[in-house]
Design goal:
- This protein is of the alpha/beta class.
- The longest helix is centred in the last third of the chain and has 18 residues.
- Helix 3 packs antiparallel against helix 4.
- Strands 3-2-1-4-5-6 form a six-stranded mixed β-sheet, sandwiched between helices.
- Helices cover 43% and strands 16% of the residues.
Length: 146
Amino acid sequence: MRIFVDADACPVVAIVEKVARKYNLPVTLLCDTNHVLHSDYSQIKIISAGADAVDFALVNLCQKGDLVVTQDYGVAAMVLGKGAFAIHQSGKWYTDDNIDGMLMQRHVSQKLRKASRKNHFKGPKKRTEEDDVRFEQSFEHLIQTI
């Protein structure tokens, strides 16, 4: 099993690397040219900037049995289709049972935003230490389950 991280602005990279070291699992961080990453553990792949360039590179690299960390439901759906596993930075596992509902929810939310003509919404809540603990526990449990 290899671990791939959609690392553009990903808040859990250090946690992923900590747990991966524990299990001696290789990690690849993917980011575009607008981000600068450094790691003494992970391989870093810098992908040309462009709409969804990192997403498609990640999907192309992962194989059956790999584990992907992403907040993008579309990426999660594509890697699940390849037989890989996926987890959100919140710790929620993407599965064949929940991905369709998540994609539908994203679609409906996009339609509502367009219909209301509001382009600026509050971003996500500030990440807490509890969020990091929840992600780490869920991530390690997923590794143990695979």
